[in-house]
Amino acid sequence: VQVVESGGGLVRPGGSLRLSCVASGVTFSRYTVSWHRQAHGKEREMVAIISSASTASSDITPNYADSVKGRFTISRDNAKNTAYLQMNSLKPEDTAVYYCNVQWTRWYDYWGQGTQVTVSS
């Protein structure tokens, strides 16, 4: 199983980035996907989560940390084994390493290596 994030980088305040998370070796559609971040010297926190049942036509919607609501959007494309985190109106306090997690029951729980996001002028 491999989980790989990409799309991080340096962006100015107010800018946007889209992170991608590709999971291989799993039946991706079964897995809940979440994005987490860890800023230097701080604990890792979850910023967004989307369940396997969340689709464009379902009533099950993603959830977000209060600090990113209205600015970040999590989505998934099961056909591509890929999840995304669209980040808009970025702030310096969004600077962190962002990690993708895919989980199906407590026994199947996988993390990526992280991608750095730096918001600075």
Task: Summarize the structure in words.
Strands 2, 4, 5, 6, 9, 10 and 11 form a seven-stranded mixed sheet that branches. A hairpin with a 6-residue loop joins strand 4 and strand 5 (45-50). With 121 residues, the protein is mainly β. It is globular, with a radius of gyration of 14 Å. It has strands at residues 2-6, 9-11, 17-24, 32-38, 45-50, 63-64, 72-77, 82-87, 96-104, 108-111, 115-119.
Task: Record keyword descriptors for this entry.
seven-stranded mixed β-sheet, mainly beta, single chain, 121 residues
List segments where confidence is low: pLDDT < 50 over at least 5 consecutive residues: none
Structural class: mainly beta
**Percent strand:** over 45%
Distance N terminus to C terminus? 37 Å
Number of strands: 11
Global morphology: globular
| Main sheet properties | 7 strands, mixed
Radius of gyration over alpha carbons? 14 Å
Could you give the order of the helices and strands? EEEEEEEEEEE
Percent range of helical residues:
under 10%
Q: How many DSSP helices? A: 0
User: What is the averaged pLDDT score?
Assistant: 93
What's the SSE blueprint?
Layout: E1 2-6, E2 9-11, E3 17-24, E4 32-38, E5 45-50, E6 63-64, E7 72-77, E8 82-87, E9 96-104, E10 108-111, E11 115-119
Parallel strand pairs: 2-11
Antiparallel strand pairs: 1-3, 3-8, 4-5, 4-9, 5-6, 7-8, 9-10, 9-11
